[in-house]
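Worked Example 4.2. Consider the chain below.
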Amino acid sequence: MRLTDEFTISTPPDTAFTSLLDLQLVAPCVPGAELGAIAEDGSYPGTVSVKLGPMKFVYKGRLRIAEQDPVTRTAVIEGEGRATSGADTAKVRAVMEVLPEGAGSRVRMTTDLDIKGRAAQMGAGIIGDVSRKLVREAATCIEARLAAPADADPQSLPVAGSVGGVGLMASVMTARLGGSFRRLGRRGEPDAAAGASAAADASTDPDAPRSATTDAPESAPAEPAFESDGIETGSSGD
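Applying the procedure from the previous section yields the following C-alpha cells:
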C-alpha cells in the first residue's frame, strides 16, 4: 500500500534535509521506535512497537538510507523487519522530499508499505490513519529538537510519547466517523436541492395536480430551519 504524509517545520530546507537524515536525531521522535548504532554496512538495527486496541505489534529489523541528493533535497529510506512473535513481516520504502515553505520547509513522505500478517488485516484505511497521527506527533517532536541549542544536553531533548492502547484506537475511529458523517452530509445536499426544485416547478405548473384542500386558509409560514453540526433542525413550535 502507498501512504502519503507531509508536515511543515520552521527550519530552512537545506538544514532540515541534513537534520532529517540524521536518523539518530530523528528516531527518538518516532513513537514506539528504538534505533541502534550504525553498522559497518551503513544500516541501523531497530525496533518498532505499536499497540492498537488489544493488539500489539513489535518488529525488529534494519533501516538504511538507500539514496540521497542534497541538490534536490530528496532521499530514499528503506527498512524491513520481522515480528518478534509470529510470522508477520514488514517492508518499507519511503521517499522524502524537503520543499521550501516560506522561511521554513514542507516535508513530504511517500511510503510504500508491504505488511504481511495480523497487522495487514486492519486494512489500508486504519493503517493510513494511524500513520498520519504518528507523523503529526513525530513532526512536533522534530521541530522542538531542531530548535534546541546546539550545546543542549541530549537528555533534555524532547522524545516521542508512548504509542497505542485505547487512546490511539479511539482517536483514529473518531476521525474516521467524523469523515463519514461529513460525507453523508454532503451526499444529502443534492437530494434536498432536487426536492426544493421539484416543489418550485410544481407550484408554477398550471397542469400540476392540486390537493383537495387548496381552498382552505393558508397556514402561517414555518420558521426557517437552521443547521447545527450538519443536521437540519426546524422549529418545534410552542
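Residues 2-150+158-179 form a domain with the Alpha-D-Glucose-1,6-Bisphosphate; Chain A, domain 4 fold (CATH 3.30.530.20). The CA atoms of residues 227 and 233 lie 6 Å apart. Compare this with Example 4.1 before moving on.
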